[in-house]
Amino acid sequence: MDAVALDDLLGSSAREREESWRYSKNAIRALTQQTFATAPPDATLSAETLQRIDLPFTRGRRIVIVNGAYSQRYSNIGELVSTIRLHHESAQRLKITISTGCADPLHLVYVSAPAGSASRWQADCEVELQSGSAGLIEQHVGEAGADVFGTLTSQITLGPGTVLRATMISDIPDSVSLLRKGHCTVGNSAVFAATHAHFGGRLQRIESRIDLVGTKSSCSSRGVFVLRGREHVDVHLDVRHNARDTRSNVFWRGVADQRSRGIFHGAITVAAGADGADAQLSNKNLLLSANAEIDTQPVLEIYADEVKASHGATVGQLDERVLFYLRSRGIPAAAARNLLIAAFCREVFDGMAIDVMREYLDAALVARLPADAGMP
Amino acid sequence: MATERSQIETALSRRYDAGFVTDIESDSLPPGLSEDVVRAISARKNEPDWMTQWRLSAYRHWLTMLPPHWAKLDIDPIDFQAISYFSQPKNRPKSLDEVDPKLLETYDKLGVPLHERARLAGVAVDAVFDSVSVGTTFRKELADVGILFCSMSEAVREYPDLVRKYLGSVVPTGDNYFAALNSAVFSDGSFVFVPKGVRCPMELSTYFRINARDTGQFERTLLIAEEGASVSYLEGCTAPMRDENQLHAAVVELVALDDASIKYSTVQNWYPGDENGVGGIYNFVTKRGDCRGARSKISWTQVETGSAITWKYPSCILRGDDSTGEFNSVALTHHRQQADTGTKMIHLGKNTKSKIISKGISAGRGQNTYRGLVKIEKGADGARNYTQCDSLLIGKKCGAHTFPYIEVKHPGAIVEHEATTSKISDDQLFYCRSRGIAEEDAVSMIVDGFCKQVFKELPMEFAVEAKKLLEVSLEGAVG
To answer: What kind and span of H or E run contains A339?
Structure first.
């Protein structure tokens, strides 16, 4: 891999890199030592993938990026064009401008497709919402057998008074690695509401920086990761309150089973002068196996005094008494476990604006639980 | 409001009360650090060869290390060659009665009359004046029950087997940059050994003072509680006013064997520098306790109001099954003080428990950081941790930061962390004032309430001192 490009991804100073990659050091080192070819942009997608990206509520309209490049063949943006402008300087650089809000969510799909040997893609996506409210779904899928390392830089700009509901779902096999650097700038009185669901991955590094630059702007970040096998997910949230009367709410859940590793880093910074800030962060994790590991690091940096900020983090396991109760009612142990794990994660999806989206995420979640046990 | 403001400004620009320099001739080494200096320190203290070699190996290791950079602190580079590594008052007294009256006067000015306090409160004091212990009281009483309480230099000479067995076993010489430096040049400190089954009949205490100019003070404390023993140790510090930054890099090691319990309390009030951040002590301390035995318990309590920069993480290694670690802390930063402090709880044994209560108060331009690690290792079945860290902000220009690290490798563990940051609410103040309580008193009352959880862990006499310290430090900080 190109060493210079990697420097940009990992953070420039040695100190920054050391702290930021504290828990994913080995995982990223293994990736940097591997040789990757450039992933072919014109891969043909399997029927299974096509089915997976066909979400029931987008009416077939989507923007598909295969191995980092915009794919004319699989995208369908026909009716969207009136409110949405799509520019691409190159296949790898997308710029989407939404002039006024639209009722249907914009569906962006990133597919990692196999290439015969280890390969790598890199893509850039900029979204600007100028007015009104809009929905955005960013979906990452990996095809079976794909040995791919994808990096995505995503920049979202929200104009004054806008509302963006974003859903980020990644469900990738453990041969695919994904490094996603997101940055959202929230203008005056604008609202950024993000819901994440991350499953799988050899290494998934989800960085999400949210800058509340406008007065009375607010954001929420709700998310869940459910891991098994040797999957490794590293979530880095960085919420910055830079203006007066801003609000943020972070609510994340994590589940790690078998030999997986889940990392949550949630930083909230309140800059000097950002009075009236209200910041809440909650992170709870379930550690289900003796070989799995959870590392959590909620961080507060406060430089203003008219502030309400709090965070809470826990790591624990399923409550034996509750399991016993369910079993005493005739529910098999494995099914009872599934029920409790799903309930633990579902809290994240509460209050989602689009019911069908919540149902879709819920189905994806349930699919991640041990199948033979089933749900009661 | 205008008069209030001026009162506040007067109170805020208050000078450091304990700032004075006692004029006693010091026997110091010239500034600089080399193997020869390490040897010279060792020679002056008449140390056996193994100790000299131990120091030298630490020094050689230190040369290969770099100062830690991860803390949220703004530190000017320290010129280690500009520091004198050894200083002791001349004419070392044999007993308290022979102690230079000027020196005792110094303690008096601080409100710590050594004789009186020791007698009245039943406290045995091992007072460290600069780098050498000048007097030790109650040693006989302690010796009667088999407790060894003496200076580190004495311990090296008289109990070499114990020292060799335990010194560096909790904080190895190469543990970190400042611990390595301390291991090479440590001047003196306290040594406590509580044998099997003995409950220490009194609170043990040491008063540290930095006095001679440009002298780094490198204390080394080693405290061992054998099976079933218990001991409570108090440590308090104040330092005179000074314009150059002074380095204080101490190492404290605690060892608790089966069923032993150690309570270690600190009130730290080193000179914090003036309101512009000139001068003040650099307090870079490595404190670590090893719960080596089953059912052992180590409890750290600290009240940190002084020092220009504090870098300190009293930790517990919970090695023995069913062992318990506790950390209770109040840290206050005012003017341009910076503190990066917290704890580490390393759970290795089964059913180990730890509790962390941290209260940070920032005022003026102070920056206060809590940094804590809770680590549950693979064998720590049934481990339990609860952490609460709260920050209180007083003023527009200060900062309060929280950096917890939670690493869990055992599915049988329960770890909980909670943190809040807020300022003193106008409602609380208004309520108090409407009841006729002056604003200053209201603030100190609210701060006292904020810190209560920690103060109640302090031994009586320390609790009073700590409360007073906070009151004085925060006079008029709310406008």
So the answer is: helix A333-346
